[in-house]
Amino acid sequence: MRRTLKIYMGMLIGLCLMSASTFAADIQLQNLRTEMLVNPQGIDVTQPRLSWQIQSSGRNVQQMAYEVLVASTQAKLAANQGDLWTSGKTASNESIMVTYKGKALKSGTACYWKVKVYTNNGESAWSSPAKWSMGLLLPANWKAKWIGYEKGFAWDSVSKFSRLSARYFRKEFASATKVKRATAYISGLGHYELYINGKYIGNQVLAQMPTDYNKSVQYTTYDVTAEVKPGKNAVATVLGNGRYFTMRPKYKPKKIKEFGFPKMLLQLDIEYQDGHHQLVVSDQTWRMTADGPIRTNNEYDGEEYDATKELGGWNKAGYNDTKWLKPQLTPVPTGKLVAQMSEPIKVMQTLKPKKLNELKSGTYIMDMGQNMTGWIKFKVKGKRGDKVTLRFAETLQKDGSLYIANLRDAKVTDVYTLKGSTEETWHPVFVYHGFRYVEVTGYPGKPKESDFTGDVVYDALATIGSFETSNDIINQVYKNTWWGVAGNYKGMPVDCPQRNERMPWLGDRATGSLGESFIFDNHKLYSKWLDDIEEAQTPEGAIPDVAPAYWNYYSDNMTWPGTYILIADMLYKQYGDLRPAEKHYASMKKWLSYMQGKYMKDYILTKDKYGDWCVPPESPELIHAKDSTRTTNGQLIATAYYHRMLFLMKRFAKLLNKPQDAQAFSALSVKIADAFNAKFYNAQTQQYDNGTVTANLLPLYFDITPVANRKAVFANIVKRVTTTDNSHIATGVIGTQWLMRGLTEYGRPDLAYKIATNKDYPSWGYMAERGATTIWELWNGDTANPSMNSGNHVMLLGDLIVWYYQNLAAIKAGINQPGFKQVVMKPMLTDGLSFVNASYKTPYGLVKSEWKKGNNFDWNITVPANATALISIPAKSVDAVTEGGKKAAEADGLKFVKMDAGMAVFEAGSGTYSFKSDL
Ligand code: RAM
Fold first, then answer.
1. N or C: which end of the chain has fewer CB within 10 A?
2. DSSP SS3 for 837
3. In the CATH scheme, what is the code of domain 2-133?
4. Which residues are catalytic?
5. Residue 788 Cα: closest atom of ligand 1
């Protein structure tokens, strides 16, 4: 009886249709987004997708229909006139990524929108309004010219290290009264700052998203209506080098991509109330100088700022620029102009120094207490010409001085020359550093801690997960992960923020990106990165190891380029977004057939490059193990990954309605599995190849191992881990991507927990015990050769964070209802772990999972409206489970499904639940 009333999706809809459509004060709408961005300006998706969240304290709330209005003015929207789109009441339970189906949107159009929903529990009022605007969609819309200066100046030098001063541009213009709207469209390569009448526009830093500028160049749109004044105005920019004018032009021939001297494109569109437009565009009527205060800016080497060279009111109207140069019209970058569709980089947090010691006369060492990325902002008072020098490092040497051996040839030095007299404040604008410690020299007088601030700089991605357990090591590693991941987001995921590298290596994010998505809303960042990867594909189909391909690494392997497919899968699962898979499907398929054609022999993929990168080596100073019992056969890795890629492509093919492809992928994967087992499986020892954990784990986890052999293979993994490896990690970047889930899903969560909580070498806990506040590049990062030993890499995390959330916190996206439309909640219990408190902001809203284990198991769960959950509660029987003090099976919003291996499984509608069970 009960069953018929409770919630299974299909039944739910029936139930909902029966309920009266009453207005419910408890149904609120919030978090409206366009293309998953909050009120974005200048987008170039002509049919943007709209999302909203339903907030309700009730249980089992499901959307039955929506109504969207999109209007061209705020007034029209307020009057409920959707002149661009009136969806009408549309029966649908979709509340994320609902495609706009209104009038064709033209360049520059402003769009205001709101939504209302009808649920099984009453209807909402209209939401608060949200907005977006369209960018410049056609090349003909651009009247601006690319300007710059195609050579260096006397004070610049370009040797192995490039030193190029920043370039300052300005233009005055007159505006009439009655400005209705003013919009600035700008692209500034490599970095830019934009000012109008002296005011810094926006709150982004290090502006200009990094791309392969030969392939695509992004522009950003700013609403500057408030800045344009009747009468005289000035628009001004500063251009820095970024990745455009490369940091190491002469580094290893042909390895580095060089683009040229900084350049910009700017179009300011002033629309008046009477409808006419005035354009102010970059061209040769502007003026420029490179003889300003920023004398050099180089991402590896630092920024030098000479305040005695400041240009006064150069970015305001009325400045005398007669001595400035006329800019050159530069060659137009070959890359296609596209709108920036991801979050900009910002100062996201500030830190106060923990300590400031005088190491020797005039040399101070400052400890920020945290390995961070960004810069130091400081106050200083002194004489004109005094020079304050800051140098940065992740750790200190025994004598208390900076340890810089692991930075290779990055100079990481900022220099500020004082103009004198009053207090001066400065921070660099076109560089960042990865550091915990700062050496301060040349500071006039005695510096105080309060003179310095650490600005933490990364992409403005919301932190959407929180996670805490009863285990301190897990908590510390989680915190270290937050810092490592945040710091390595720089408009693309980079490998490290400190040495002369900082490259977007694909392999580092293969599975890591999934773990990261539980901590940060990285949807747009990774969507953008897939575009970077696609742009880096060769006409033959090769995908490089680094994209954008600032470094030229086309080494043809499965594990680094495979990240392309793994991330499309992550975006689908975590955000419910199939569009990246659709957009990149052809390129992904092309890469697979390229690799097959070139390297597959008898169904074995014969080419690999990195092996199981960075396994714990046999001696402390080694970077890579030489001991062949630790390393894993490259062909085994490559073939297993090829098989995994086919598995993901098969799913995409099905979802994208390409049944023939799905069949072909499936047929090929069967052949590969057979060849793999024939070549690598030893029936006598019941393991693969040389029996490393990685060699056995990949085929097992990827379902290459025949069912009959799985138990034995897993037993061998356990044996190896518990005996040879003394219950410690013995995998590198590859094996670690599947290890924690593999051990757990095959029945040894205790072993996964042991590995996750070890404090001695090798382990994540060991890093933390040795004082790490981020994650190291090497398990032996405290003893290894400094030539490849960063203190802030994220690749060794593997699937640890995935496991934290999916298995410990029990928050996992249901594969058939991705984007957490269905939350699958199955906690992993193991001795030693007594509670987990986690929350996660899914596209539908907040999921909470807080459990504690004593004699009973207590679990508080929140499921957002318009989502459901499949909840597995450890219990002897269903009757042993209560919710809110009553039998759970009878509780509102719950439907008991079955007992399954010591768990009572329920389907739940939205709402907050408080479970208790006897263990
Ligand atoms: C190193 C980087 C990176 C890794 C490559 C293979 O240079 O640190 O993290 O992906 O090697």
1. N
2. strand
3. 2.60.40.10
4. 501, 777
5. 8
Query: CB-based contacts of 663: which residues, under 8 Å, 6+ apart?
Result: none
- For the segment 275-296, what is each residue's pLDDT rounded down to a tens digit? 999 999 999 999 999 999 999 9
Query: Which CA distances in Å does 916 have to 516, 879, 887, 912?
Result: 31, 11, 10, 13
Q: What is the pTM of this model?
A: 0.97
pLDDT of residue 251: 77
Smallest CA separation from ligand 1 atom 5, residue: 505
Q: Is 859 in the pocket of ligand 1 (CB under 6 A)?
A: no
The pLDDT, as a whole number, for residue 329 is 98
Q: Beta-carbon neighbour count of residue 258 at 10 Å?
A: 13
pLDDT of residue 363: 98
142-342 and 347-459: identical CATH topology? yes
795 lines ligand 1 (CB under 6 A): yes
| Ligand 1 in reach of 551 Cβ (< 6 A) | no
Give the CATH number of domain 465-808. Answer: 1.50.10.10
CA of 88 to the centre of ligand 1 (A): 52
Assess whether the C-beta atom of 610 lies below 6 angstroms from ligand 1.
yes
DSSP letter for each residue of 107-168: TT-EEEEEEEEEEBTEE--PPPPEEEEB---SGGG-----EE-SS--TT-EESSSEE---EE
Question: Would you state the pLDDT for residue 25?
Answer: 65
pLDDT of residue 4: 37
pLDDT, tens digit (0-9, with 9 covering 90-100), for 10-48: 444 444 443 444 556 699 999 999 999 999 999 999 999
| Minimum-distance ligand 1 atom for the alpha carbon of 790 | 8
CA of 513 to the centre of ligand 1 (A): 16
| Domain edges within the chain | 2-133, 142-342, 347-459, 465-808, 822-918
At 709 the pLDDT is 98
pLDDT at 24: 65
CATH of 142-342, one of 2.60.120.260, 3.30.470.20, 2.50.20.20, 3.20.20.70: 2.60.120.260
CATH superfamily of 347-459: Galactose-binding domain-like (2.60.120.260)
Which residues of the chain have a pLDDT value below 50? 1-21
Distance 495 CA to ligand 1 centre (A): 7
**How confident is the model at residue 919, as a pLDDT?**
82
Distance from Cα 512 to the centre of ligand 1, integer Å: 14
